[in-house]
Amino acid sequence: MVKSRGDTHRERLQGFVIKTYDEKNEIGFYKDTSSLNNVLIYYVILTGRVNNAVNLISISINGQDIFLTLCEVEAYGECPAGKWSLPCSKQCSALCPDTCERDTGKCNTVCIGYSNPPQCDTACSSGKWGINCRHTCSDRCEGTCNAKTGQCDQGCKGYIDPPLCKTACTSITWGTNCSSNCSEHCYNSTCNSLNGNCIYGCKPGFQKADCTENCPKGQWGQNCSSACNENCYDGRCNNVNGSCVFGCIDGFQLPNCTMKCFRGTYGRNCSSNCSSTCENGECDPVNGACGLMATDDSSGTSTAIGIVLALLVVILIVIAIIMFRRKKRLQQGNLSALERLSKENLASAEIVNAETKIDTIKNEIENQKIPVEEEQPYNEVVEVEDTSIKVEYFNSFMASKNENFFLKQFEKIPEVNNVTQHVGLNPENKIKNRYKNICPYDHSRVHLATDPDKKDSDYINASYIRGFKNEIKFIAAQGPQKATLNDFVKMLLEQKVDVVVMLTELVEDTKVKCERYWPESDKMKAGQIKVKLGSTQVFADYTIRNLELSKKGGTTHSLTQIHFTSWPDKGVPSTQWSLVDVENHVNFIKTNKPIVVHCSAGVGRTGTFIALYNIMRQAEETGLVDFFKTVSKLREDRIFMVQTHSQYMFLHEAAQVAIVCMRTTLTIHDFNDRLKLLEQNHLGKTKLESEFKGLSEIFDHQMKDDDKDETDDNVYQNSDLGNVDQDKEKSHLVYLPGYKEKVQFILAKLPTTSNEAKEFWKLVATYNISLIVAIQEDSDTLNYLPNMKDDQPVHSPYELKSIYFNKNKLWEERRLTIQTPKVTKTSTVDRDETDAITHLSCVPCVMDSKNLLKIIKRCRECQSKSFGKVIFMCKNGVTWSGFMAVLSLLLDRLDNESYLSIPLVVGTIRSLEPRIISKFEQYRTLYQTIGRHIETSTQYTNMDRSRYQTLDNKQENSVQDKGDNNINTKEGNEYHNLDELVYANTA
């Protein structure tokens, strides 16, 4: 501030110059240019290094005869931030935020990390931070926070990015820096990110808030609310499924100890076989006594009495034989003395031996040491050869066998002896059997609950069937008749069945095969039980229904019915892939109740499906498959299981497909991680290549048959969609199923001649085609589309018009109308209305995952606006048209189910046309395109993982394949790591 004289000559100050200096140099400057002559006080702001400390100020005016007239010069300034003292040379304390008092260096009015300005020597208390400790530490911090910055220096609690802690843990992690995983026993594997407590509770078998503690002794199941079966040894059972940990008490069998021993067995876990001396091989299931049911205080005596009676019978028989031989000897007077002596000695020896055996048994009775036959499975067949096959050699095995081999092996399956069917053949129950010769064995039949006040029967034509591990896994039943429908539904409710697999149509070849036991809509009543239809999902080869069963005064029970609709009345399904898809689906459903499987009789198709299921569990557990033993074992539980040799051969073929697809099912959450593993090089090739090789070996023989060059000019004829038979179809058209339709896609060649173009438009006009996709691999194709300018039809017998056109780098899109003539007696065209059709012409481009995904997304957008069929066309009618159809089908499955098996879907399509995706490059591109779709799509972000929780459990997080999931398998089996099983079948 410069003050001029106030009395006179104020003008003399005009044009003054002010300069400031530090110890050596000029640092500030100002020159007056106002030309004012009456200013009393000048306020000026210097330019230059104005933040530096000033040691000297000068004021001057240049020129001759000039007088500098002024009153006073005052300079005002502050030290730079963080400095103090007259020359601003001292540093403020670190305890001050930014500034301190210029003269004393004390903090002005605030401290950082301390609570007592200006001294700032009292640190913030725990949990406080900032200026004068006025802020509270975030609850995201583990422990306390930094008193000065508030950041979480000791880590985050429920967040993953210290020290800022802005990114929350995922739903399956918790704790300091999200370093802990939620308990695997949390439902959905989801827990509170702060304390690890399970948000949705525990899986069955576990307790406490974090689900880390097993159910207490004697309890199991959800919330540990179920009591262990009283037949469990020591009262202990598995905390998850209730199976008895230490086995069963005498007289009951594993796994849940709810069923009494099968006929011919007794003791703990029914592991001992009744003595061969017992009549009909039957004995007391508790102590093994023959023919008598022993009590607790008389078991020893009863056993001894039974054996003594048996011995008396033996003695009488021996005496009778000796007397008979002596009498015969007397009649042989012409025998030599030596011969007579030999026969007499033989008779004497027989008596001595018999007496010796009797004495031995008496001694054993007295000492209660009755010998028992060596333990062996029920009705075990003594085999002359090992019929098991290693999984890794199964493709080679199948390639080396023909139908005659399977016929001969099927005929060797032994008949089951020592079984009875008294109850099923009882006259009052015979009418409940659909076929006279098919009813359950007495030892394995299902018993219905009976009312003592009513004269109802406990009989139903259904049998318990053991799984691979001898657990009661299935109920094989005949399809219900009118007379047995109520009993069938009653069985479902009493057994608390979660899953029903139906393998027959209600009517086949005009014959009723099964009565409908679910309502066509809403509700129906079966006896005292109400059956309500929940949801129904119809797919190409099967239908899934959700049913609710309820009884007055009881709880409602829900079950899932999977109705396979592609098994013909005679023979076997035309393809194995669809049945494997159903088996795969059933295996994903979590249940500890018997799975009911039925067809019409409950033996042929039913036995084939159950055998496939058991064989796949054997493959997963041991790396071996044994069809002969599996079917033999099924027939011990129910007659005629796997009824024909064609079913037996089909079983092998289906298992081959299932093994190739084993452990290849991926979810939207693990797909890309799994793909990275599949693309890793392993012993010179990737696992993805091994997967493709195993898949292709199934179709190699079909490919050889299809290598012949077909030159039929008319490639669009014989296209009757109502009667499609791929094996007999002579045209170049290929009909493929969609997600819910048996025929959704039609593959065709791009027309190359005028005649082909006309036939193509006839195909479009005749059937409900809503979308045409033409993949142009080069520009050398026939122009079969109408011109936008004159709308003249091009190579078409119909009136075609383009009503919309758009083009980008990947495709040209048209909307077309096709005007068809009226129906005449000679015309096969049945449309006479104008329908709009979308035509996408994919221009030549690089067929990588990025471009393919853009194209298929546009195809699906167009398809979603209509309900018609889709034609995919390419140069040879298969390569890229087939690829696009498979990709569309895979995306439909992924959107609806959140998981898929690419080998299963590709195999299903290749079973109809082996040339589709027959090269590894396309197979890899298919995976990459699906992966890109998942990565770029937002629709899966919040998808509920519980939809496929069972899948994740069954695959045991196989995506984290680090080689530590080894299972000790059967000795001599070279296959050990079950996570690698899908690749083992490619040796």
TrEMBL record:
PANTHER family, A to Z: PROTEIN-TYROSINE-PHOSPHATASE (PTHR19134:SF562), RECEPTOR-TYPE TYROSINE-PROTEIN PHOSPHATASE (PTHR19134)
Designated name of the protein: protein-tyrosine-phosphatase
Domain Tyrosine specific protein phosphatases residues, every copy: 580-649, 850-924
Native source organism of the sequence: Biomphalaria glabrata (Bloodfluke planorb)
Matching InterPro entries: Growth_fac_rcpt_cys_sf, Prot-tyrosine_phosphatase-like, Protein-Tyr_Phosphatase, PTP_cat, Tyr_Pase_AS, Tyr_Pase_cat, Tyr_Pase_dom
Catalytic activity: O-phospho-L-tyrosyl-[protein] + H2O = L-tyrosyl-[protein] + phosphate
Stretches assigned to the Tyrosine-protein phosphatase domain: 406-658, 699-933
Entries under Gene3D superfamilies matching the protein: Protein tyrosine phosphatase superfamily (3.90.190.10), Tie2 ligand-binding domain superfamily (2.170.300.10)
Family matches, as SUPFAM superfamilies: (Phosphotyrosine protein) phosphatases II, Growth factor receptor domain
One Pfam family it belongs to: Y_phosphatase
Molecular function terms from GO: protein tyrosine phosphatase activity
Origin: domain of life: Eukaryota
Enzyme Commission numbers on file: 3.1.3.48
Family as reported in the entry's similarity comment: Belongs to the protein-tyrosine phosphatase family.
Region annotation (Disordered) ranges: 703-722
